[in-house]
Amino acid sequence: MTDTDSTPSTGGTDHTAKAPSRRALIGWGGAGLALGAAAAGGAVAMTRVGNDVDPAGADAGGAVPFHGAHQAGISTPVQDRLHFAAFDVTTRDRAAFVQLLKDWTAAARRMTAGQAVGEGAYGGLAEAPPDDTGEALGLKPSRLTLTIGFGPSLFTKFDLAAQRPDALIDLPKFAGDALDPNRSHGDLCVQACADDPQVAVHAIRNLARIGMGKVVIRWSQLGFGKTSSTTPGAQTPRNLMGFKDGTRNIAGTETDRLDKFVWVGEKDGPGWMTGGSYLVARRIRMHIETWDRTSLQEQEDVFGRDKGEGAPVGKAKEHDEPFLKAMKPDAHVRLAHPHSNGGATILRRGYSFTDGTDGLGRLDAGLFFLAYQRDVREGFVRIQRNLATDALNEYIQHVGSAVFAVPPGVRDADDWWGRTLFAKEA
Amino acid sequence: MTDTDSTPSTGGTDHTAKAPSRRALIGWGGAGLALGAAAAGGAVAMTRVGNDVDPAGADAGGAVPFHGAHQAGISTPVQDRLHFAAFDVTTRDRAAFVQLLKDWTAAARRMTAGQAVGEGAYGGLAEAPPDDTGEALGLKPSRLTLTIGFGPSLFTKFDLAAQRPDALIDLPKFAGDALDPNRSHGDLCVQACADDPQVAVHAIRNLARIGMGKVVIRWSQLGFGKTSSTTPGAQTPRNLMGFKDGTRNIAGTETDRLDKFVWVGEKDGPGWMTGGSYLVARRIRMHIETWDRTSLQEQEDVFGRDKGEGAPVGKAKEHDEPFLKAMKPDAHVRLAHPHSNGGATILRRGYSFTDGTDGLGRLDAGLFFLAYQRDVREGFVRIQRNLATDALNEYIQHVGSAVFAVPPGVRDADDWWGRTLFAKEA
């Protein structure tokens, strides 16, 4: 894998060490009027910021490192809130698109560190639109992670067809699918996770703003209440059906299982995906009102676990090894279990959603399912095919679907999202 | 005001002292299978809970008292998250509706205390639907408040026309309104605020479930990131335009201002509203992408404050007294200020919202504005009329609207939501 284009963009330099925290900018902001009148630009702004920087490390808490072999936001302990956006690329200019990826990387590097986009806070010039939209000023980094993915349709553009991974298949139609094209697919995705929703929303909004004229948001989804935990020992969260969800999920510390089931290895190919993963996103609407009228026994039969503790049928504790044959043949846990799927295992990172009410007074609520895997064919597809007879299907419907190749991590301050894909032919 | 119907409903008894916390129920839940097999009912369930109750007070933290002269959720320090629902009443049976108000009160009393709905957690019987949907089990009370309101259209039902307060007007059409009837009005509303969105969503969902066949959700709205603070000294949160919002809001501790501007007094009438308030809810869409392309100077001119600190034009600090004449004539702060509106003052309790993307790739985001006042005519209407020339109108649009009479608080374990309205003629 030749890296012929690792030159940093102007926005790509790492200002982490000297740049202001979001909190520090508040102090600077008080001089907004004076600054506006003087139109003094970045230098003055930086000085002002410098006067007001918090003691070292005061705002470091809650920042997840942006650089690494893998992108953050996959094996990272799951944050409380999600803003997920799928974008379509509108530019046909490859250089402009590569520049956008570099600009996005620079912005993501700053925002995940708790910094405003742009060195001079609002750009320094009162006559210009601010570099940062401002609503996250004063908020902590909140463990923000930003994770980018490339959808199948991207590989029909920019002469990328030969680089499309075999593992990035177009998902087949599954039994019961009722997919809304306006909530499906996309050339790109960015998953923003943070413990504060305003921080996640701020990040997606600023990336959309930076991408104006080159990309447009195709659909987006907010989520809350992490339904699956990648933190070992943490209490397993409950989904909106009231059941614990993610009991047997892969923990971020299980490097063996991550290597086996999540990360793309050198031998898997293509080379540009080494260290990456594949993401399947599914918007799963729950028929909440029907579920709520269902007896406890039926609910527990459907899942194959009891509702309170989450113990598998016939067992006492949540983490007891399930005895699948004690469950009904169509129990969800039985059908989804690796033993029923030739060992297929995925890392789940889903969030609950509630998007108001549909025209019939029913909650538009459910699970925004996010799963990472080393090969979509061996992971989600195999499991979802087996769920065709799932008893749960009476109470849910998949209404949105997308799949993305998630490239490896950004190594350092000179690296950028997608370099391994785009640099070799840049 | 005669109280002829203060007899508690079966669900109205206060079990606060002896009932299990959400967390304690987790321990019980582990016996779900055994309980289901035995169908032992509430008694056994309570015993099991009793075995597993946390040490006294361990879960009391984060519970806001439900009983009081005023409903909680108005002057209560603003929680982080909102789920707001407007309902239409579908039953024509007055007794059935009154029973629903009592059942709702009982459920609200338990949920705000961090307890599951129903004494026996899932009802005790495996053959029955659970009394509680379960997704808040194990979560803290999270400062949940539930606040009910009665819309103008309710007073056309159940022979209530004579009880409709003069102050509960149908809002006039304001300049620029583009109201969606599917996001407006409603016979009832419930405002659920909590620091955990799953707790707020759980509460609305369970009230909707309890109301099945009597009421139906007309519309609902999720919100986050409290844009106005009723906590004195707390940092003022920022709205999605990046500006601090709520600098001069009424603090929950300012009893004089609350009595003057928020609570309905005995002399105001009607008697059943004494201790209540009036709520105006407006869904205000922000033209985010247009705003983000606007210069810092223009943004600050529009608001009349600087963006970083939030100081009024010409002043240094956020809480400095504004000098209105230094602002442009159409500045938002100038036009909304009490000095420009004959002293009109409202308690704001709004939340930011982001509901994905519209068909044009633009964020469907903005401010879900909630304002409480003693008289709608003297509060919101006066201010909103003056905002007809607001420079901010170029960047926002009101797309949903509703108004509600918010009755006084539930006094004790025998009291229920709406008693002062319904009991006198029951």
TrEMBL record, chains A, B:
Q: Name one GO molecular function term.
A: heme binding
Pfam families the UniProt entry points to: Dyp_perox_C, Dyp_perox_N
Query: The Dyp-type peroxidase C-terminal domain covers which part of the protein?
Result: 236-410
Reactions performed catalytically: heme b + 2 H(+) = protoporphyrin IX + Fe(2+)
- Domain Dyp-type peroxidase N-terminal per the UniProt entry, residue ranges: 71-224
Q: What does this protein need as cofactor?
A: heme b
Q: Name one GO biological process term.
A: iron import into cell
Q: Which GO terms describe its cellular component?
A: cell envelope; cytosol
Q: Does the keyword Aminoacyl-tRNA synthetase apply?
A: no
Region of interest (Disordered), residue spans = 1-21
Q: State where composition is biased (Low complexity).
A: 1-14
| Cofactor-binding details, from the entry | Binds 1 heme b (iron(II)-protoporphyrin IX) group non-covalently per subunit.
Q: Which NCBIfam families match?
A: Dyp_perox_fam, tat_substr_1
The task this protein performs is described as:
Involved in the recovery of exogenous heme iron. Extracts iron from heme while preserving the protoporphyrin ring intact.
Q: What is this protein called?
A: Deferrochelatase
Organism this protein belongs to: Streptomyces longwoodensis
